[in-house]
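Example 5.3 — YbaB/EbfC family nucleoid-associated protein
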Amino acid sequence: MSRPNDRLITEVTGLLDSFQAAMAQLGDARRQRDALTAEASVERGRITVVVNASGSIVRTVFGEDIGDLSYGQIARATVQAAQQAAAEVRRKAEALFAPVQAARAQLPQLPDLFADLPRLQDEMTPPPRAPLTPPGERTPDPTATGFEDAVEYRPSRRGAFDR
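Solution (predicted structure tokens):
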């Protein structure tokens, strides 16, 4: 005769097995992601930038005819190549992690086992991507929260905060 908790024990055991398999798959994907690189060339191949999985520049190569460009053109083109390479390595990483995400979506969630528990993933929002434009060239975000009642610290003889 089966006990009332046998079904729950079987489900939790299956969940743990699935979780361990997903974690192994995630570890493999992370190791493969860490080896990713991407490269982009601009200015008719005069500037080539290679980035790692984090989007950090690991190599920059200038062609022999780089002297045809001004310093400003070289700087802008190098940034452009780095951004293109970073976008490519991001696409590669997303493709690499797609099967992991699909497997994760198939895992039962705790609320599936215990009806009253909230889904914590629904409460978490991903951080926004950092802008690619230099700070001086950014337009202010109209939806950003302002601090109208902020207090500016200005040391005074009294040692107090002044408005």
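Remark. The CA atoms of residues 28 and 100 lie 10 Å apart.
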